[in-house]
Amino acid sequence: MHIVEPTLNSDAGHCMSLVRALSEAALHTGCQDIRIWGGRKMAEIAWAAPGQVQAHFVRRWRRLQALGLYRRLLREPGRILVSTAGSADLVSLDWAARSCGIGRIPAHKVCLFVHWLNIKPGKARLYSTIARRQPELRILAPTASVADFFSACGFKTQVVPYPLDSADHDARHEACASEFRHLLVPGSARMDKGFGHIVDLVEEMAKRRLSWPIIVQTSLEHGHDKDLELTEALAKLQSCNYKGLQLNDKAMDRETYRAQFQGAIVIQPYRAASFQDRVSGVTLDALQAGSPVVVTDGTWMARLAGKYKAGIATSDLSPSGLLQAIQTIMDDHAGFAQRACAAAADVRAEHSARALIEAVLTEN
Q: Considering only 44-48, 312-316, 322-326, which range has the smallest mean pLDDT?
C-alpha cells in the first residue's frame, strides 16, 4: 500500500497522527509492504510506526512531483491512498493515467480521502468530467455531505470516519481524573478558526480581572503566515495584559500536545460557514482526553459535543457569550468532564483507522 501525504513534514500535528494511524491499521489489516510518501523534511525525522517513509516532496514542486509519482505508482503493484486529497490530486491522477499508457485507472487501485469541501465555481463540472473518464477512482469522505457531493459528480463514494491515532489513547484515564486546570485553544492560529474571537476573549478576561489560566497556540500554518488580519490579531494578543495567558508559538511533539488537554476546557469559536460539516481533529482529541468543549453552534463539532452532552455550543461568539458558555461548564465541570470521558470510548471505536483501510482494500 502506498500512502501519499505530501504535507507530512513533521513529527507533530494532525497530519502525522493521521498517517501513523493509517499505517498501524494497514499493518493490522494484513499489509506487509507499506510505503508513505511524505515531505522532504521527513528524512530528518525518526519514523517509529509501520512502513517505510519516502522523503519525496518539496513544497514548491509538489504538484509536479505528485504527477510524476502517480504516473509511476499507477504502473506498479499495490493500492494507492491519497490521505489528504484535493482537486489537484484528482486532476493529477487523471493526467497521470492518460499520459502513462494505462488510460483508465483500474478498479480497486486508487482511493482519495477528501476531508472537506472548498468548492470554487466550475469545479463541479471539472470533477464530473474526471469521473466520466476515471469511473474507478473512489472517494472516501468523513461526512455524508462531502460524499454526496462527489457522488452527484459521478464518483464511487463511501463515508468513513476520520481516523484517530491509537497511540494517543494511553493518556485517557489520567486525563479523565483531572480537575479543571486551564482554558485551552489548541491548533495553529487561523482566522477561520476564530482566532479574532480568542483575542477579544482574553482582552475581556483581563478587563474583568479573571484568574483562569488560558493556553493559546499561536504557531502559523503555511498559507496563513501572510494573513495581515491574523498578524494584527497576534500582535494584539501578545500585548494583552492578562496574567494567566500562556502563548505557544512552536509546533508541539505528540506527548506535549496531548498532555495539555488534561484538565482543560477547549475553546473552538470556529466560523460556522466553514465548519458546518467539517470534521475537527481538535474536538476529537478533546473528547478522547475527557476535555469538555465550547464550540460554535451549527457545526459538526456542536453536533458531536451535543450527542454526548460534553460541551456547550453557542452562536454568541462575543467575549460575553464565550464567557457565559465557559461559566456553564465551570458550574458543573465534573459532570461535563465525566460525560466527555464516557464519550472517549465511543469516539475511539467510531474513529478507528481500520474502517478507512478496509475501504481501501475492499474488492466490492
A: 44-48
In the sheet with 182-185, reading across from the earlier edge strand, the strands are: 245-248, 214-217, 182-185, 264-268, 293-296, 311-314
- pLDDT tens, 9-63? 888 778 888 999 999 999 999 898 999 999 999 999 889 899 999 999 998 999 9
- C-alpha atoms less than 13 angstroms from C-alpha of 56 in its C-beta half-sphere: 22
Measured CA to CA, the distance from residue 364 to residue 288 in angstroms comes to: 32
User: What pTM did the predictor assign?
Assistant: 0.86
Please tell me whether residue 267 adopts helix, strand or coil conformation.
strand
How far is C-alpha 145 from the chain's CA centre?
Answer: 17
- Residue 177 reports pLDDT greater than 50: no
What are phi and psi for residue 312, nearest 5 degrees? -120, 130
Could you tell me which of 212, 269, 266, 264 has the C-alpha nearest to residue 242?
212
For 135-227, where are the alpha helices, taking DSSP H only? Answer: 144-153, 172-176, 195-207
Alpha-carbon distances of 282 from 47, 172, 274, 321, rounded to whole Å: 23, 15, 15, 21
Cα–Cα dist 191/181, whole Å: 26
Tell me the domains of the chain and their CATH numbers.
2-164+351-361 (3.40.50.11930), 167-349 (3.40.50.2000)
Encode 313-347: b = buried (16+ Cβ within 10 Å), e = exposed.
Answer: bbeebebebbbebbebbeeeeeebbebbbebbeeb
Please state, in angstroms and rounded to a whole number, the distance separating the CA atoms of residues 273 and 270.
9
**pLDDT exceeds cutoff 60 at 234:** yes
- Position 239: which residue type? S
Residue position matching grid coordinates 462527489? 150
The helix/strand/coil state of 352 is coil
Task: Give the residue, 17 or 208, on which the prediction is more confident.
Answer: 208
* Burial status of residue 64 (CB atoms within 10 A of its CB: 0-12, 13-18, 19 or more): exposed
Can you give the pLDDT at residue 176? Answer: 62
